Amino acid sequence: MFFGLSACLDYLRPDDDAVKKLKNVVFVLGFFFILFFVGFRYKIGSDWLVYIQLYEHGTPFLDLLQGHNLAFTEDFTEPGYKLFAALCHDIGLDFGMFVFLITLFNTISLFTFLHKNGFRNKLVFLAIIMILTAIIEFDILRQSIAFHVVLFAFVGDRIKPFRFYALVALAMMFHYTAVIYIVFYFFQKWNLTKKGLIFTTVLYFVSLFVTLPLITSFLQLIQPFAGGVLGAVIAKGQSLIKGFEFSRNISFTSLLNLMFLVLLSMNIEKLKLAFTESILLKMFIFYILLNVGLKEVQEVADRFSYYFTFGIAFMFAMLTGLIRIREKKMLLMLTPAIFIMMRLQLHFKRESIRIGQTPYRNYFFIDETDEKLIKMRYDLMQSKKLMEDEGKKN
After folding, report:
1. pLDDT in tens, 160-170
2. List of residues 6+ apart from 259 with CB closer than 8 A
3. CA nearest neighbour of 315 among 143, 109, 129
4. What distance in Å separates the CA atoms of residue 263 and residue 274, rounded to the nearest whole number?
5. Within a 13 Å sphere around the CA of 178, how many CA atoms are in the beta-carbon half?
6. How many CA atoms lie within 13 A of 290 on its CB side?
7. pTM, whole model, 2 decimals?
8. Cβ-contact 254, 248 below 8 angstroms
């Protein structure tokens, strides 16, 4: 709610010096709020136990350098993450400080992007990004690193190919799904047109009712030719499909996406976009296309589309240019806060998530008496999660 209410500042007089100073204060507070809230979280989510075991019982750093257990095929963990975790562990950092260092890097990456790139309504953008990614990143430690590594490639007024590919390669050392950025590099070179957006809107609408088996067909096609790391990735993908054979159709999020697409189709020829704004807009369209093509298994679609949530956040920031009514200022001031409240309500509607992520716990406010309750809630969450997944498949 802090970010949602702060986002209203974007709709006040932008040239007012007092408003500018207040925005700067909010950004500084936001930076430290993220570090504290996300960086010092304590055993929240569904994967914390796995990450702790991997950190505390992983292969030592020097052994990894000699090739022992470094390959992804050993335990489905990327080598870059193994090396970084082992180095932190071997120099004496506990798991809490390790998570804080990751959060520090991620936050610096995010605020570097915000500070050095020019685009409208940055507080609105930041507010939506926090609600879309902060809670999710409790469970996707490796992928969050990959995302924020590549984010540096989008800093500036153009994408430099060598820097882009180098950062993608580095990101893939922490999560192989970052390979999707290579596809996006070519996609962002295309110009967005009204006809193209109308086609995308129709395609997305149809996809809400029809699901094509693109993932299983693709994996079956390339499996005979795959080996090594690629074969391990395919095997993991197939295990995901077996565990998550369900997809979402019409939902609050899909209707929101459809509204954004319609507004874009109506206004694309009138919009004057800076370079970064154009990239963010294309991230949103790419996000839509990923959800169309990968919705056969929503877990897979969510994994890849996570990298392009900046596109959704920018669509909220763009609303002032897409909605042309006299009363838009008051309406748009409330939009981020309303969305955040609805998003939180829908997120915690699933019982397993509610058990695993509430109450919020922080390293500074935990003692030994809490551990038994935390473990009990973790076991309960895992059993609820298994029941929910089984129910969705049935």
Report:
1. 999 999 999 99
2. none
3. 129
4. 19
5. 27
6. 25
7. 0.88
8. yes
